[in-house]
Fold:
Amino acid sequence: MAGSALAQAFMANQPLLLRYLRARGAAADAEDCLQDLWIRTQASADDGIGDSLAYLYRMAHNLMLDRYRTARRRQDRERAYRKDVEGGDVDEAPAADRILTSRERLRQIDRVLAGLGPRTEHIFRRHRVDEVGQRDIAAELGITLSAVEKHLQKAYRAVAAAQRAIADGGDPIAAGKESVDGQR
Amino acid sequence: MASADRHLQDEALDWVRRLYDPSFADWDAHIAWLEADPRHPAAFDEASLMIEAATVELAPPRPLATSPIPINDNLLEPIVPSRRWTRWGAGLGIALAAGVAAVVAVPSLMQAGAQPFVVHTAPGEKRVVTIDGTSIALNGDSSLRLDRINPRVAVLERGEAFFTVRHDAAHPFAVQAGGARFQDVGTAFDIVARADVTQIAVREGAVLYDPGGAAVRLDGGQSLRIADNSATVRTVDAAAVGGWRSGQLLYRDASLGDVAQDVARSIGEPVAVDPALTVHRFSGVVMIDADRPRMFRRMAAVMGVHIRRVPQGWQMVLPSR
Structure:
């Protein structure tokens, strides 16, 4: 396994990967992250990988996101737990809260996207859900790559503003609209 | 919001957009940006998760109805959603799976282009369906929708099913029941979809409830009951989960209404519960037995109720003494 193309690329590019992990904020954990990355490399089937280094960067990117997600969830849980203990209801309340928000969230995001116009909405869903490359979307619609990028930038900002408003208990629709107005 | 903050966030969002492209390759520029300002890495992580959280379970696009601009020939063909589960190409799914909660977009389960088919069972009938290495045992009076195109999704429309999932980290098996979503993490589990209650119990492995949102992980020996917009996690006897397949129904602190529904599904006859019994709870085992009178005599004894034959089927009532 250590002789695979991916493993060889890992061996050859350790300093670059370490630099990337540090750039992503791994700080003192960078060496540990590199170990994790190596383990993932070992578990990965590596046939059909074009650019090994780009692939390794992609894996490192996913690794760092996983770490960040895990840390975030832990914080959320601890916060929810403290709230529950004070409220006297330990087991059931947090899940119930979150179910409501997750359904409501999707509805709000749908409304924000609808407010951006059919073309922007279509391009955002094509990119984010179907995971089609931006160049391919441009070809599908017969528009330039930079036009696709502009649609996506608008959608990303509106969705992020809405999501932030949801997290803060604000009005996501207004926040989404405001982000678009701010770009004009 | 201060405009400097806003600028930083917009930049971070733009990197999230660029990296999400399957063909992204400009890692040098990305690293240069990350290193340019100590606030950049955190802003990037923040933006990544923000967009991720906002777009889980987002529906795929509908084809654009009309186009005000010149149309390419390739637009005349229908826009077919790409394969759902490929993310960054083959192989990387394994890496993602190493973190249990790998966020995989679970779009609406039956896509445009799906070829759904439905498997039904009559009350009292049991059936096992095997699709792509996954075995699904269907209890009586149940309805399950599957897709010929994507064998990794199932919608339990009614009744109860026990799933023994062939685990494939790159293509998680997703189940929808009563508006709730579940995703396997290497698993054998049971789902009941009643009119107002959805309940899942995990026998082996783990299942993510609401994989895109709350991502509540349920391990073997845990169950989740969703009713009235609230969810309750309980511990159950893992070995008893799916026991209905061999005629054993095991309960811990269950309402008699739930027990009655389960029994009715198994025997194919209605079982009613007297309203006076709604506060009663039951813990124990019910054995399904072809000798119905004997079965109900035993049930009545262990549940501390009286069960009588009525024209429509059976009825649980308070003991007469």
The domain at 92-184 of chain A is CATH 1.10.10 (Arc Repressor Mutant, subunit A). The longest helix of chain A spans residues 52-87.
